[in-house]
Predict the structure of rRNA methyltransferase 2, mitochondrial.
Amino acid sequence: MIPPGDLSSPIGFVLGVDLLHIFPLEGATFLCPVDVTDPRTSQRILELLPGGRADVILSDMAPNATGVRDLDHDRLISLCLSLLGMTPDILHPGGTFLCKTWAGSQSRQLQRRLTEEFQRVRLIKPEASRKESSEVYFLATQYRGKKGAVKQ
Ligand SMILES: C[S@@+](CC[C@H](N)C(=O)[O-])C[C@H]1O[C@@H](n2cnc3c(N)ncnc32)[C@H](O)[C@@H]1O
Ligand SMILES: *[C@@H]1O[C@H](CO)[C@@H](O)[C@H](O)[C@H]1NC(C)=O
Protein backbone atom coordinates (compact mmCIF):
# COMPACT_ATOMS: atom_id res chain seq x y z
CA MET A 1 0.00 0.00 0.00
CA ILE A 2 1.07 3.58 -0.57
CA PRO A 3 1.51 5.45 2.69
CA PRO A 4 -0.63 8.61 2.40
CA GLY A 5 1.37 11.36 0.73
CA ASP A 6 4.27 9.12 -0.30
CA LEU A 7 4.75 10.07 -3.95
CA SER A 8 8.02 8.22 -4.23
CA SER A 9 6.22 4.88 -4.47
CA PRO A 10 3.47 5.39 -7.00
CA ILE A 11 2.49 1.74 -7.24
CA GLY A 12 -0.80 0.90 -5.65
CA PHE A 13 -3.03 -2.12 -5.35
CA VAL A 14 -6.56 -2.07 -6.72
CA LEU A 15 -9.14 -4.50 -5.44
CA GLY A 16 -12.58 -4.55 -7.04
CA VAL A 17 -15.60 -6.15 -5.37
CA ASP A 18 -18.88 -6.84 -7.14
CA LEU A 19 -21.96 -9.03 -6.95
CA LEU A 20 -21.45 -9.78 -10.62
CA HIS A 21 -18.62 -11.61 -12.27
CA ILE A 22 -16.02 -9.11 -13.51
CA PHE A 23 -13.79 -9.96 -16.43
CA PRO A 24 -10.07 -9.89 -15.60
CA LEU A 25 -8.41 -6.51 -15.97
CA GLU A 26 -4.67 -6.02 -15.86
CA GLY A 27 -3.48 -4.24 -12.73
CA ALA A 28 -6.55 -5.07 -10.66
CA THR A 29 -7.61 -7.94 -8.46
CA PHE A 30 -11.27 -8.88 -8.18
CA LEU A 31 -13.31 -10.41 -5.46
CA CYS A 32 -16.46 -11.53 -7.23
CA PRO A 33 -19.17 -12.53 -7.12
CA VAL A 34 -19.20 -11.15 -3.59
CA ASP A 35 -21.87 -9.21 -1.70
CA VAL A 36 -20.61 -6.17 0.20
CA THR A 37 -23.47 -6.54 2.68
CA ASP A 38 -22.34 -10.05 3.63
CA PRO A 39 -20.65 -9.87 7.07
CA ARG A 40 -17.87 -12.17 5.83
CA THR A 41 -16.81 -9.79 3.08
CA SER A 42 -14.57 -7.48 5.11
CA GLN A 43 -12.49 -10.48 6.21
CA ARG A 44 -12.11 -11.60 2.59
CA ILE A 45 -11.05 -8.09 1.58
CA LEU A 46 -8.53 -7.95 4.43
CA GLU A 47 -6.93 -11.19 3.33
CA LEU A 48 -6.20 -9.69 -0.08
CA LEU A 49 -5.07 -6.20 0.89
CA PRO A 50 -1.30 -5.85 1.12
CA GLY A 51 -0.60 -4.37 4.54
CA GLY A 52 -4.16 -5.19 5.55
CA ARG A 53 -5.58 -1.70 5.03
CA ALA A 54 -6.88 0.38 2.13
CA ASP A 55 -6.13 4.08 1.60
CA VAL A 56 -9.32 4.65 -0.36
CA ILE A 57 -12.74 3.00 -0.47
CA LEU A 58 -14.51 4.00 -3.65
CA SER A 59 -18.03 2.81 -4.36
CA ASP A 60 -20.11 3.14 -7.48
CA MET A 61 -22.42 0.42 -6.19
CA ALA A 62 -26.09 0.65 -6.93
CA PRO A 63 -29.05 -1.68 -6.61
CA ASN A 64 -31.00 -2.54 -9.76
CA ALA A 65 -33.38 0.39 -9.96
CA THR A 66 -37.08 -0.46 -9.62
CA GLY A 67 -38.11 2.99 -10.78
CA VAL A 68 -39.76 3.63 -7.40
CA ARG A 69 -37.65 6.60 -6.40
CA ASP A 70 -37.90 6.35 -2.62
CA LEU A 71 -37.32 2.61 -2.57
CA ASP A 72 -34.28 2.88 -4.84
CA HIS A 73 -32.94 5.72 -2.73
CA ASP A 74 -33.38 3.76 0.52
CA ARG A 75 -31.65 0.71 -0.94
CA LEU A 76 -28.70 2.69 -2.17
CA ILE A 77 -28.31 4.46 1.18
CA SER A 78 -28.31 1.12 2.99
CA LEU A 79 -25.61 -0.15 0.63
CA CYS A 80 -23.52 2.93 1.49
CA LEU A 81 -24.14 2.34 5.20
CA SER A 82 -23.06 -1.30 4.89
CA LEU A 83 -19.85 -0.18 3.28
CA LEU A 84 -19.35 2.45 5.95
CA GLY A 85 -19.83 -0.31 8.52
CA MET A 86 -16.79 -2.03 7.07
CA THR A 87 -14.45 0.96 7.22
CA PRO A 88 -13.15 0.32 10.75
CA ASP A 89 -11.84 -3.03 9.54
CA ILE A 90 -10.39 -2.02 6.20
CA LEU A 91 -9.61 1.71 5.97
CA HIS A 92 -6.42 3.41 7.15
CA PRO A 93 -6.83 6.32 9.55
CA GLY A 94 -6.54 9.40 7.33
CA GLY A 95 -8.12 7.47 4.45
CA THR A 96 -10.79 8.46 1.93
CA PHE A 97 -14.29 7.14 1.28
CA LEU A 98 -16.34 7.91 -1.83
CA CYS A 99 -19.84 6.56 -2.41
CA LYS A 100 -22.58 7.03 -4.95
CA THR A 101 -26.04 8.13 -3.83
CA TRP A 102 -29.33 9.15 -5.33
CA ALA A 103 -30.66 12.22 -3.56
CA GLY A 104 -33.48 11.62 -1.11
CA SER A 105 -34.74 11.74 2.42
CA GLN A 106 -31.97 9.61 3.96
CA SER A 107 -29.03 11.46 2.44
CA ARG A 108 -28.80 13.65 5.51
CA GLN A 109 -28.55 10.62 7.78
CA LEU A 110 -25.72 9.16 5.69
CA GLN A 111 -23.99 12.54 5.69
CA ARG A 112 -24.28 12.69 9.49
CA ARG A 113 -22.78 9.21 9.87
CA LEU A 114 -19.94 10.13 7.53
CA THR A 115 -19.26 13.30 9.48
CA GLU A 116 -18.87 11.26 12.66
CA GLU A 117 -16.22 9.12 11.02
CA PHE A 118 -14.42 11.57 8.72
CA GLN A 119 -13.07 15.05 9.27
CA ARG A 120 -14.32 16.40 5.95
CA VAL A 121 -17.44 15.41 3.99
CA ARG A 122 -18.53 16.93 0.69
CA LEU A 123 -21.26 16.21 -1.83
CA ILE A 124 -19.79 16.15 -5.33
CA LYS A 125 -20.86 15.58 -8.91
CA PRO A 126 -17.75 14.41 -10.77
CA GLU A 127 -17.27 15.46 -14.39
CA ALA A 128 -17.46 11.81 -15.41
CA SER A 129 -21.00 11.57 -14.04
CA ARG A 130 -23.60 12.22 -16.73
CA LYS A 131 -25.47 15.51 -16.26
CA GLU A 132 -28.85 13.83 -16.75
CA SER A 133 -28.10 11.22 -14.08
CA SER A 134 -29.41 12.04 -10.61
CA GLU A 135 -26.40 10.42 -8.98
CA VAL A 136 -24.27 12.45 -6.61
CA TYR A 137 -21.29 11.27 -4.57
CA PHE A 138 -20.32 11.77 -0.98
CA LEU A 139 -16.60 12.32 -0.70
CA ALA A 140 -15.38 11.84 2.86
CA THR A 141 -11.73 12.41 3.66
CA GLN A 142 -9.42 12.13 6.68
CA TYR A 143 -10.88 9.07 8.30
CA ARG A 144 -10.75 9.43 12.07
CA GLY A 145 -9.94 5.74 12.52
CA LYS A 146 -11.42 2.86 14.37
CA LYS A 147 -12.95 4.03 17.62
CA GLY A 148 -10.94 2.98 20.62
CA ALA A 149 -8.00 1.89 18.49
CA VAL A 150 -4.50 3.04 19.30
CA LYS A 151 -3.19 5.00 16.33
CA GLN A 152 0.20 3.87 15.07
C1 LIG B 1 -23.46 1.38 -11.52
S1 LIG B 1 -22.77 -0.25 -11.47
C2 LIG B 1 -21.05 0.09 -11.28
C3 LIG B 1 -20.36 0.11 -12.55
C4 LIG B 1 -18.85 0.24 -12.43
N1 LIG B 1 -18.46 1.51 -11.84
C5 LIG B 1 -18.30 0.14 -13.83
O1 LIG B 1 -17.86 1.16 -14.36
O2 LIG B 1 -18.36 -0.97 -14.37
C6 LIG B 1 -23.25 -0.80 -9.88
C7 LIG B 1 -22.61 -2.11 -9.47
O3 LIG B 1 -22.88 -2.34 -8.09
C8 LIG B 1 -22.90 -3.73 -7.90
N2 LIG B 1 -23.52 -4.03 -6.61
C9 LIG B 1 -24.78 -3.73 -6.22
N3 LIG B 1 -25.03 -4.20 -4.99
C10 LIG B 1 -23.88 -4.81 -4.57
C11 LIG B 1 -23.52 -5.49 -3.37
N4 LIG B 1 -24.38 -5.65 -2.38
N5 LIG B 1 -22.27 -5.99 -3.29
C12 LIG B 1 -21.39 -5.84 -4.32
N6 LIG B 1 -21.68 -5.20 -5.47
C13 LIG B 1 -22.91 -4.68 -5.60
C14 LIG B 1 -23.70 -4.20 -9.11
O4 LIG B 1 -23.51 -5.57 -9.33
C15 LIG B 1 -23.16 -3.32 -10.22
O5 LIG B 1 -22.12 -3.93 -10.93
C1 LIG C 1 -29.40 -6.99 -10.97
O1 LIG C 1 -30.03 -7.90 -11.84
C2 LIG C 1 -29.16 -8.87 -12.40
C3 LIG C 1 -29.96 -9.69 -13.42
O2 LIG C 1 -31.14 -10.16 -12.83
C4 LIG C 1 -28.59 -9.74 -11.28
O3 LIG C 1 -27.69 -10.69 -11.82
C5 LIG C 1 -27.84 -8.84 -10.31
O4 LIG C 1 -27.34 -9.58 -9.22
C6 LIG C 1 -28.76 -7.73 -9.80
N1 LIG C 1 -27.99 -6.79 -9.02
C7 LIG C 1 -28.37 -6.41 -7.80
C8 LIG C 1 -27.52 -5.37 -7.17
O5 LIG C 1 -29.32 -6.88 -7.21
Summary: The chain has two domains: 1-52, 55-152. The chain has a mean pLDDT of 92. The two ends are 16 Å apart (CA to CA). The first helix runs from residue 41 to 48.
